[in-house]
Amino acid sequence: MHAMQYITAAILAAFVGYVAAWYTGAIEGNFALLLFLATVVTGGYWLAERLMFLPRRRRAAQALEAAAVQRRAELDRMGIQKVDGDIHEAKGRILMQPWWLDWTAGLFPVIAIVFLLRSFLFEPFKIPSGSMIPTLLVGDLILVNKFTYGLRLPVINKKITEGTPVQRGDVMVFRYPPQPSMDYIKRVVGLPGDEVAYLNKRLTINGQPVPTTSLPDYFDRDAMRYFQQIEERLGEKTHRAIINPQVPAFVQGASNFQGRDGCRYSVEGVTCKVPEGHYFMMGDNRDNSLDSRYWGFVPDENIVGRAFFVWMNFGDFKRIGSFN
């Protein structure tokens, strides 16, 4: 038992050290991997508790009780009826789960539920930037549907069911291609095989201009200024977007991404042919979004899920609700 205490202390210290190094920026953390390992480790302790440690404590408690019964019988034969001492407290201490099982096996059910929910159903995210304004604001806490596009195995993100095909206009969370440990959120503009053009701040797909409607200017409370606002229709979905006329249409600083030979850059903007198995993503804040225009296409294996609901914004409770 003493060895298990030291082993457990070392495991817990390793988890704490990993989180601390991640928090301080010393390493690049992977929450999915951390949660998976926590589930496996606590699950192992939970099984050991059910199959070995708990039966062992119960046998020890039964032995104590049997010894007490035998002692009382011997005292009875000696004519001693009144016996001091109560074994109930000692029995309770023997059956009590030690701290190292409390912090492992005891946490397994909660960790397992969180792991299953996060891996296969819904995952929460926080919007860190203004690239999706006006649809999503900085500080929005959103839910992402993990099964719409097909279930994926945690950590390795391998697709195991087909699900519903990605649609133009979907708001998607994905692993950032240049740095897959980071999650990004943008809107799906181009599907595999599409030719997407964003020229002079007008979106065209397969030679057809995307229908737009002018809306009243949008006031950005963080920037304390107004922006030109439009409503776009991608497929069956409409959404709002904002444009800053003062920013040039030229895409400045595009990286040398895979598939760039299928893109043409000019002073008017960019035109790209989307490769098979990839998607072209853009932010709704068109002139303040680092998206596919700059770093390329999102491969299918990088998909995390479809964002669909703001469940909290502590600065504005009216933000709670679904969005397009």
UniProtKB/TrEMBL annotation:
Main location: membrane
Reactions mediated catalytically: Cleavage of hydrophobic, N-terminal signal or leader sequences from secreted and periplasmic proteins
Active-site residues, as the UniProt record annotates them: 131, 186
Subcellular location: Membrane
Lineage: superkingdom: Bacteria
UniProt-listed Gene3D superfamilies: Umud Fragment, subunit A (2.10.109.10)
Keywords (A to Z) from UniProt: Hydrolase, Membrane, Protease, Transmembrane, Transmembrane helix
InterPro entries membership: LexA/Signal_pep-like_sf, Pept_S26A_signal_pept_1, Pept_S26A_signal_pept_1_CS, Pept_S26A_signal_pept_1_Lys-AS, Pept_S26A_signal_pept_1_Ser-AS, Peptidase_S26
GO annotation (BP), single: signal peptide processing
Peptidase S26 domain: residues covered: 101-312
Keyword DNA damage set for record: no
Topology within the bilayer: Single-pass type II membrane protein
Molecular function GO labels: serine-type endopeptidase activity; signal peptidase activity
GO cellular component: membrane
EC number, as in UniProt: 3.4.21.89
Pfam families: Peptidase_S26 (PF10502)
Membrane-traversing stretches: 31-48, 100-121
Family in the record: Belongs to the peptidase S26 family.
NCBIfam families: sigpep_I_bact (TIGR02227)
UniProt-recorded name of the protein: Signal peptidase I
Species, as recorded: Oryzisolibacter propanilivorax
